[in-house]
UniProtKB/TrEMBL annotation:
Protein name per the record: Peptide/nickel transport system ATP-binding protein
Residue ranges annotated for the ABC transporter domain, each copy included: 31-268
CDD domains: ABC_NikE_OppD_transporters
Organism listed in the record: Thermomonospora echinospora
A Gene Ontology molecular function term of the record: ATP binding
Length: 280
């Protein structure tokens, strides 16, 4: 089974009818998301004309302060959150040009790992029954690995299969969330501050796991973070976000070692993770 996951034969390869490998996994053009304040009626642009392109197997970071619009962007870009304007292509398909059924199929190619792992898991389900439910929804797609093998992939003991979320540590629960995402063999993994809710002692391990998952499956990744150490561990390219706009984009090394934008410089100085250091 490990063979399937080796580099060069991504788990996503060849799946999904009509999805060639060279098409960007995600292409966002002029994305706008507005929120209307119910009491004042005032309109607030949480995302203001963002363009973004993530190629197959690429790992992109969206970095910015809290409130800059990162989560809103990620949800809208993957068709899971509201959008007020702009175009989104997921695996070469415009979200405006496809029907619900196709959209449902495409969404399966995108899996999201959230900040709060306990909040993402159903508290009434053991790990095993949660996985069983996922498998029931997508039999063919999920048949590539058994539960014990899957947990092994995220370095958890199969003993945890019968535990409920409250019996898992934050790090274990996040590994379960990553396993659940992995099970679906996505073409894009969106990770929204995946380590911010975890004890510092396990953050590095979970990041290492995400990097490994990314390398072994060939899935593209959209990593959202306010923490440079996170970006450094996992991403190739970075998009710096401020007040709903992307103010600077480029390879991580360039953006973080010679930022062109003043705001990027300020952000770097203020960010956890401190100055950019090249990946080992
Ligand atoms: N449903 C909503 N209604 C109104 N304002 C919202 C809503 N969701 C987010 N916002 C606002 O949009 C801005 C961006 O939020 P968010 O995308 O969560 O930022 P980030 O993830 O970068 O911290 C924030 O100012 C937030 O208060
Ligand atoms: Mg957020």
């Amino acid at each position: 089974m490990a063979e399937m996951l080796k580099r060069g034969s991504p788990a996503g390869a060849g799946r999904g009818p009509g999805i060639p490998e060279d098409v960007p996994v995600l292409a966002v053009d002029g994305l706008v998301v507005e929120h209307r304040n119910r009491t004042t009626g005032e309109v607030f642009r949480a995302v203001d004309g963002v363009c973004l392109r993530i190629g197959a197997g690429e790992s992109a970071a969206v970095v910015g302060e809290s409130g800059s619009g990162k989560t809103t962007l990620a949800m809208a870009a993957t068709g899971l959150g509201p959008r007020s304007g702009g175009e989104i292509e997921l695996l070469g398909h415009s979200l405006d040009a496809i029907g619900r059924r196709r959209l449902r199929e495409l969404r399966r190619e995108v899996q999201i790992v959230f900040q709060d792992p306990h909040g993402s898991l159903d508290s009434r389900q053991s790990v095993r029954s949660g996985l069983r439910e996922l498998r029931g929804l997508q039999r063919e797609r999920t048949a590539w690995i058994d539960d014990a093998g899957l947990l092994e992939r995220v370095r958890l003991s199969p003993d945890l299969l019968d535990r409920y979320p409250h019996q898992l540590s934050g790090g274990q629960a996040q590994r379960v969330c990553i396993a659940r995402a992995l099970l679906m063999r996505p073409r894009l993994i969106v990770a929204d501050e995946p380590t911010s809710g975890l004890d510092v002692s396990v953050q590095a391990d979970v990041l290492e796991l995400l990097r490994e998952v990314r390398e072994s499956t060939g899935a593209a990744m959209l990593m959202i973070s306010h923490d440079l150490a996170v970006v450094r561990a996992v991403c190739d390219t970075a998009h710096v976000m401020r007040h709903g706009r992307v103010v600077e984009s480029g390879p991580c090394e360039t953006v973080f070692t010679s930022p062109a934008d003043d705001y990027t410089r300020e952000l770097l100085a203020a960010m956890p993770g401190g100055r950019w250091r090249a990946r080992r």
